[in-house]
């Protein structure tokens, strides 16, 4: 990885503080709390670098587009709140790849999404 920068530190701090999948706009807004000059091109460049290095994982969601999360987490699935549009992590996995694939198929990975209202929006 290239040299450590204030911008990259701010972006990594966003992920550590929020601790859920986030998109470009939220990363940019939160990162500007630390580095006022942070811009969209810098965020994209650093996200690409952090994904290549294996620190971040890119998530392509059905409705929210591309989000990012810290890669070092255990396998998990996601819950999207239909009210606030946030994506939350659901621990663990009840899905059995071996028994779910048709004969002769090889599943390389999977992702399950749940949709509904989060605790904050339900009330």
Report on the structure:
With 123 residues, this protein is α+β, with helices and mostly antiparallel strands. It has 2 domains: 6-70, Winged helix-like DNA-binding domain superfamily/Winged helix DNA-binding domain (Arc Repressor Mutant, subunit A, Orthogonal Bundle); 76-122, Ferric-uptake regulator, C-terminal dimerisarion domain (Dna Ligase, domain 1). It has helices at 6-18, 24-31, 40-53, 97-100, 119-122; strands spanning 56-61, 65-70, 76-81, 87-91, 113-116. Strands 4-3-5 form a 3-stranded mixed beta sheet, with no helix packed on it. A hairpin with a 3-residue loop joins β1 (56-61) and β2. α1 (6-18) crosses α2.
Q: What's the structural blueprint in terms of helices and strands?
A:
Elements: H1 6-18, H2 24-31, H3 40-53, E1 56-61, E2 65-70, E3 76-81, E4 87-91, H4 97-100, E5 113-116, H5 119-122
Parallel strand pairs: 3-5
Antiparallel strand pairs: 1-2, 3-4
Helix pairs in contact: 1-2
What are the main properties of this structure?
single chain; 123 residues; alpha+beta; Arc Repressor Mutant, subunit A; Dna Ligase, domain 1; 2 domains; three-stranded mixed sheet; two-stranded antiparallel ribbon; 5 helices; 5 strands; 35% helix
Number of domains: 2
The pLDDT mean sits at 89
Per the CATH scheme, the topology name of the largest domain is Arc Repressor Mutant, subunit A
Relative strand content? 15-25%
Write the CATH homologous superfamily of the largest domain: Winged helix-like DNA-binding domain superfamily/Winged helix DNA-binding domain
Largest sheet: 3 strands, mixed
Q: Alpha-carbon distance between the termini?
A: 44 Å
Helicity, as a percent range: 25-40%
Basic shape: globular
CATH architecture identity of the largest domain: Orthogonal Bundle
Total number of strands? 5
Order of helices and strands: HHHEEEEHEH
The number of helical elements comes to 5
Query: Rg, please?
Result: 16 Å
Specify the structural class: alpha+beta
